[in-house]
């Protein structure tokens, strides 16, 4: 085959792979027990509702396996369970696979970076859990649990998969552990935590792509705390804090919430209620959702030193946005609203500016988002 034909073949193969690539978003809606599947057109940000599957009452946090073959979804009603779904590699459609018990009602779900363990955090029971995932992608009935301070709110492993960190909202601590890859056991690093200022409310986590830095959103403060990660021990060192709530929002400091006063109905004061935190694929931008003002704040990230700079805050049409998610190319931000009947797609400019470009119907109380790119990566 001559050189011209080889080049033509390579171009054709590249175009074919690109054409076969697809980006899907899976969004849980606990009020109707559904997981809705959307396709995101990464050329223009358009969202299309593809399918809905029944997952179970109060389906809430979800997690994708690292290989993109399985979606795990936690049900927050007794008996507490995790439902797993197989993902069709071509269409992205979900097929119910198996169920396994969970230790408690879980507010957060993730897997380790190798897909060997299911990790979870229980806000109401103040604990973290780890359970092995077998070769059939079914979580074990043998569950390790770890008590925390009041209101554990997240648990994730770092990019190296040697360490795990958790937001402990009610204790104003970020918990730090070593992960035993052979057993899934978590061992506290040092004292087992680093503290943040009182009434910060550490919630969700995000890592820099190179694994050098950890970022934690404060639910009650609307700040993002930055930490460096010791490459040898995994110990965290605070390096910066950035405020994501501009004065124009006129929000008072937040308060700890639980099932009894989640909406603070007896308190008419608009209060900070930050929720999700997402890092752009290139590690240069960080996005934080804020529910009371229905907005998203954007920070610039110093990729060398880990420090943050608040850029701006943008209103979103989705009321009470709990979760947000970025497309794999980083050009689009998907936003859900717990009190919205729409899911929105926003174009992300190079400076982090957001512009709404598309929408699709959502399930009731839509909140958790997982994004998957299939084929052509």
TrEMBL record:
Gene3D superfamilies: YVTN repeat-like/Quinoprotein amine dehydrogenase. One of its GO terms (biological process) is glucose metabolic process. GO terms for molecular function: 6-phosphogluconolactonase activity. It holds the Pfam family Lactonase. Residues 1-21 form the signal peptide. One of its GO terms (cellular component) is cytosol. InterPro entries: Cycloisomerase_2, Lactonase_7-beta_prop, N2O_reductase_N, WD40/YVTN_repeat-like_dom_sf. It comes from the Bacteria. It comes from Pseudomonas koreensis. Belongs to the cycloisomerase 2 family. This is Lactonase family protein. SUPFAM superfamilies: Nitrous oxide reductase, N-terminal domain. Keywords: Carbohydrate metabolism, Glucose metabolism, Signal.
